[in-house]
Design goal:
The complex is a heterodimer of chains A (about 120) and B (about 110). Chain A is an all-beta fold. Chain A contains no helices and 11 strands. With about 110 residues, chain B is mainly beta. The chains are: A mainly beta (about 120), B mainly beta (about 110). At the A-B interface, strand 5 of A face strand 10 of B.
């Protein structure tokens, strides 16, 4: 069974930094592209960025609103993916979800972790 | 960048009625499209993948159709638990989500 469990959310001041993590299980993590999606409470879903598998080059891509501030990385030995968020803004307040297709036809989602940016 | 546009924004219907939700892509995504249902405080629940295949455990009153740029989610007879927000999501060219359609009780 595929499982994705996020952690590390919390309250941070504008301009601050936070790293959220996602531990994966139930599939071959090293082959999977991992994606972060966020959702402002009461609003829609927004793609944040994704990281390819190392075998596919390991590159990360980002949505325009977070490019240059957020960094996605992975540790295949720990089956973990990370989202490092710097220069946080109030509008980054959201639930952050770890997601993947795990090389299948269907997407899998974690339960999400809430990041609140407020002074 | 692919943009997904869902319509209508809100659908007001009664239990037992048929719901038809639309998702239009700004360029072709083939059949790389999924539909989710989301209720307040919950993670999106996968309904349809590959544009028309029902996910495990999804009742057959839910059906998806379409390919390329035009997609439809149909709920044949609304049950009380179906009143929620529905999102389409394409993964054919990077990822993108529609803005959602709220199905509310009339």
């Amino acid at each position: 069974e595929v499982q994705l469990v996020e952690s590390g959310g919390g309250l941070v001041k504008p301009g601050g930094s936070l790293r959220v993590s996602c531990v994966a299980s139930g599939f071959t993590f090293s082959n999977a592209w991992m994606t972060w999606v966020r959702q402002v409470p009461g609003k829609g879903l927004e793609w944040v960025g994704r990281i390819k598998s190392e075998t596919d080059g390991g590159a990360a891509d980002y949505a325009a609103p977070v490019k240059g501030r957020f960094t996605i990385s992975r540790d295949d030995s720990k089956t973990m993916v990370y989202l490092q968020m710097n220069s946080l803004k109030i509008e980054d307040t959201a639930v952050y979800y770890c997601t993947t297709f795990a090389r299948t036809d269907t997407p899998y989602w974690g339960q999400g972790t809430l990041v609140t940016v407020s002074s | 960048e692919v943009v997904l546009t869902q319509s209508p924004g809100t659908l007001s219907l009664s239990p037992g009625e048929r719901a038809t939700l639309s998702c239009r892509a700004s360029q072709s995504v083939g059949t790389y499209l999924v539909w989710y249902q989301q209720k307040p405080g919950q993670t999106p629940r996968l309904l349809i993948y590959g544009a028309s295949s029902r996910a495990t455990g999804i009742p057959d009153r839910f059906s998806g159709s379409g390919s390329g740029t035009d997609f439809t989610l149909t709920i044949s007879r609304l049950e009380p638990e179906d009143f929620a927000v529905y999102y389409c999501h394409q993964y054919g060219s990077s990822w993108a989500f529609g803005q959602g359609t709220k199905v509310e009780i009339k």
